[in-house]
Amino acid sequence: MKKFTMNTVWARGWPGVILLGLLTTIPATAETLHQAWEVALGVNHGLKAAQEETVVAAQQLEAAKAARMPGVSLEAGYTVLDNAPAMNTGVGGGIQTAEKESASYKAVATLPLYTNGQISNNIDAADAAFQASRIQTSGKNQDLKLQVAEAFVGVLRAGRGLEVASSHVASLRAHTQDVENMHEQGMVSRNDLLAAQVTRADAQQEAIKAKNALDLAKSAYNRLLGRPLHQEGVLDDLQPEPFDESLEMLTEQALRQRHELLALQEQRRALRHQADGIRAKTGPQIALNGGYEYMENQYQAHEGKWFVNVGLQWKLFDGGVIRHQASASDRQAIVLQEQYDDLVSNVALQVRQYWLDVQETGKRIQVTKKAIAQAEENLKVNRDRYESGISTNTEVLDAETLRIRSQNNHANAVYDAVVAALRLKRAVGEL
Predict the structure, then answer these.
(1) Of the candidates 316, 319, 291, the residue with the CA atom closest to the CA atom of residue 305
(2) Within a domain: residue 11?
(3) Domain span at 256
(4) 3-state secondary structure the chain
(5) Distance of alpha carbon 431 from alpha carbon 425, whole angstroms
(6) What are all long-range contacts of 382-385, with beta carbons under 8 Å and residues at least 24 apart?
(7) Looking at residue 392, which CATH number applies to its domain?
(8) pLDDT tens per residue across all 431 residues of the chain
(9) In whole angstroms, what is the distance from residue 246 CA to residue 243 CA?
(10) Which of 80, 155, 311, 368 suits a disulfide with 409, CB 3.0-4.6 Å?
(11) Does residue 310 belong to any structural domain of this protein?
(12) Is the pTM of the predicted complex or chain greater than 0.90?
């Protein structure tokens, strides 16, 4: 299996492997994309925040369910009056009925018996919000995996670019040496030597730029995995994944399981139940109350007493507050429905775009693969002709440029195909 190191280059397509002096091979176990995903999913702060939001939604669901359970409250107080309570007898003074200072406490248990659907709708709304949050977290999980995959491919692409650039330098170095020998023998003009030297220098600066691009790609990849930006490593190479499913099947699959669509459906369901829960406040509310009450009063035969009662509350008019609140939730649900309908077409477009990218890059791979062998043969022929005095130095340099271009085109086609396949899987909701 082919391996790419972050700071290693190979000189492909030229007899013998020539390495740049400052670049060395790092023996290490290649990190796979799945291993990179595991690391990133464990350290990403954005994903952790999304997971915590799901925990919050779960707690809110439990709170909504707890509304069905009885509630117990305890009250206590100490009262001081300016005058002791007394009953007016109408005959010079009155009869004291309570103490001027007294302590009291009360324990009350309340159990809702009927809420006109308020509690059940609140539970359904909280459940829908929890499901939406859970689905969104799963979607962010896939977004992170795609981001890591693109960075992973970015390192592979940059490594291949440095490899090709170094091969270009090695090839031109060998050609420049040949031209210099021929010039010393008087076989070619000085212009040929200067042209070869300038072209080699240009290739060297391109190799320097390629090495810098590799370092930046490596840093971006390390950041996503929570590692030091300068950390070295070895990445396992990737190959494009074939897709046998039709565009219609993939589109149908995406519309059925894309996390964004599912989350919007749950959010809309939550708002519908929330509106129904608000409207339920206008109906009768029945609760069972019971408990024990004590009030310090030496004039009273029984200071403490147990009690139980069934209470009814029915809000007949509130100026339209509840009606407008419910209507606001209904309108928010309509907003989400419009967003859902818009996202449906956008998802279908994404699937079509990435499916077409997969088809395009697959064809490019086949074309560029053939071009590499043709470019190698073209360079060999022009060099032989040049050494025989039939061809010109310019034709040799042009042939070398074509060779490098064919290798870059093939590498870009391969990695474009890898990225297109990953993006298509994300568009379908299966990454």
Answers:
(1) 291
(2) no
(3) 27-81+97-428
(4) CCEEECCCCCCCCCCCCCCCCCCCCCCCCCECHHHHHHHHHHHCHHHHHHHHHHHHHHHHHHHHHHCCCCEEEEEEEEEECCCCCEEECCCCCEEECCCCEEEEEEEEEEEEEECCCHHHHHHHHHHHHHHHHHHHHHHHHHHHHHHHHHHHHHHHHHHHHHHHHHHHHHHHHHHHHHHHHHHHCCCCCHHHHHHHHHHHHHHHHHHHHHHHHHHHHHHHHHHHCCCCCCCCCEEECCCCCCCCCCHHHHHHHHHHHCHHHHHHHHHHHHHHHHHHHHHHHHCEEEEEEEEEEEECCCCCCCCEEEEEEEEEEECCCCCCHHHHHHHHHHHHHHHHHHHHHHHHHHHHHHHHHHHHHHHHHHHHHHHHHHHHHHHHHHHHHHHHHHHCCCCCHHHHHHHHHHHHHHHHHHHHHHHHHHHHHHHHHHHHCCC
(5) 5
(6) 383/175, 383/178
(7) 1.20.1600.10
(8) 344 333 333 333 333 333 333 333 444 589 999 999 999 999 999 999 999 999 999 999 999 999 999 999 999 999 999 888 888 776 666 788 888 899 999 999 999 999 999 999 999 999 999 999 999 999 999 999 999 999 999 999 999 999 999 999 999 999 999 999 999 988 888 999 999 999 999 999 999 999 999 999 999 999 999 999 999 989 999 998 888 889 999 999 999 999 999 999 999 999 999 999 999 999 999 999 999 999 998 888 888 999 999 999 998 888 999 999 999 999 999 999 999 999 999 999 999 999 999 999 999 999 999 999 999 999 999 999 998 888 899 999 999 999 999 999 999 999 999 999 999 999 999 98
(9) 8
(10) 368
(11) yes
(12) no
d(CA 125, CA 277) in angstroms, rounded, equals 8
Residue 292 has phi, psi (to 5 degrees) of -135, 135
Residue 193 within any structural domain of the chain: yes
Instruction: Evaluate whether 279 touches 322 at the Cβ level (below 8 Å).
Output: yes
Q: CA-to-CA distance for 428 and 142, rounded, in angstroms?
A: 11
In this structure, are residues 248 and 100 in contact, taking their beta carbons and an 8 Å threshold?
no
Has residue 87 been placed in a domain? no
* Domains contained in the chain, number: 1
